[in-house]
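Known limitations

Files may contain more than one protein. Parsers should not assume a single record per file. Below, a two-record file is shown to illustrate correct handling: read the sequence, read the token line, then continue until end of file.
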Amino acid sequence: MKSLSIKATLSPEPADGFHSASGLAARPSSERKAPVPREPSPGLVRIGRPPWGLLARLRGAEGVIFLLGLLILWQVCSTCIHFSGKYLFPAPWLTLKTLWASLPELLKGTWSSFVILVPGYLLALASGVVWGLLVGTTPALNRMFSPFARLTSPVPPTIYIPYAIALLPTFRTAAGFVVFIGAFWPIFLNTATGAASLPQRYRDNALILGLKRHEYLRRIVFPASLPHIFSGMSIGLVFSFIMLTVAELFGANAGLGRFVQLYADYADYPRMVAGILYTGLIVLLTMELLEQIKRRALFWVK
């Protein structure tokens, strides 16, 4: 009996709600002590949270705050600071009024610019994607075309503007060609990179399935290269707007670049600044439209 009582005393406690083999009941959970939470030291700050409550409330609005700061600086430069070039900085309110008054002319210029931009960009997109897929998946084409691409792609497209205006029959054709050159190389290079970096298992699966060449490009290489293609499209669109604006400065009769150049020649700086702001807004909206298309097309990419 003594040995039994000693074993029962030394045996570990069973889980809650069960009994041990010796007949001893487990300690109820209400009698156990709850763990005491530790309080962080007063000198430590939790990682990932700003120490100031104001910054935590303003998180996500940094861009708006930066733009407001630029607007305040613009107002100060145009009204409070006196210097020789003050006339180049019209007041924000005057610029906004001028922008509203010039809106019909700016809308016509937008249409004229997009008539040149859209065909050139779409042609660069189609040719850059098709040729990039072929070059990225065909070693012989890659070896043949890579030296030419390395030689011509770094050349600034603005160099071609005088030659394009002199050689091509109309200014619209010349400007469309310059837009095409500015958009083609980023789209082509990114597409070729995406096609060349396709995992080997994709190619092996295509061989096992017996896919033909055009099916392999359309159903496997093209979807796998879409992230690279959209990156090239974004860069190419920015270059297209830059080249279009520069081309319109040379000899266009209408357009956003022509609007800015015309009123700069007449020293109408409120209209010039209004044209610059309007052009930036148009570029921003176009890039946002492309970003929305990218998010819908690449729904599997986070």
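...continuing to the second record:
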Amino acid sequence: MDAINANRASAAPAGGAGHAAVATAAAHPAAGSPGKTARAGMPAAAPASRPPRTWTAARLLPLIGPLALYVVWDLVVRLQLVSPVLLPTPGATLVALAKGMAGGPLLGDFLASVSRTLQAFVIAGVIGVPLGVLLGSNEKAYRSVEFLVDFFRSTPSSALIPLFLMIFGVTDMNKIAIAAFAAVLVILFNSAYGVINARKQRVMAARVMGASRWQIFKDVLIWESLQPTFVGLRSGVSMALVIVIVAEMFIGSDSGLGNRIINAQQVLNVRDMYASILAAGALGYVLNILFLVLEKRVVHWSGR
């Protein structure tokens, strides 16, 4: 009995030391694994590596084109490859653009063109989208008018200016109507083909589940046609802007970027002319970007 008690007494300190070692290891995690408790007999976990945040050259790529244009333009003027009378320096053009848009007369013409473009686009969208969806949902109906759509879509809208002059006269409605006519054909074409080319698997799945023709139309075809419809809307607003600028140039107008460009050209006010051209280009670019952003937000499932 004395020998057994002696053995127990000698084992107790060893066990206590072992528990103390485990407690110490738990209280002080191994180096290289912060925030985690190291288990006895297990190797320490490696820290998660985070990719370094680096400024990639890809972010600067969109600036290369404008900077290259600025440099080439400036060199052409400074080397007098083109007479400064016909082509001002890019710096002088940008100064004229900034002054004109900061409350100058250019701002009024800019807003006039924006107003006409948006009015023409709204008219084209209200007519083109529903009509395109309806025609696309009945392929036979679309095929019956396909020639007319393609014919007038391929006809330069500027060639129809005399016709619209006879109908609407020299008024703002003339410019808006011809721009709406050009845009509505683009929107109608894309909306119709969006419905016609809807994914057949989804249409068949809806039919198998017992959906009616009206349910297939409103729950499948309309949603499937949204992506090409937005493509048509984006192309339509660009077309409306082009026709509005052309109409302001050649149809009697006392405002608008087109009118300003042609008037500045006739009196060789080249700074104002190029500033107005840049303003028209910036307007078209901004409208395109706005529709791209809107398309990504609305048709976020595109391609899935």
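Parsers that stop after the first record will miss the second one. For reference, the second record is described as follows. The chain has one domain: 83-298.
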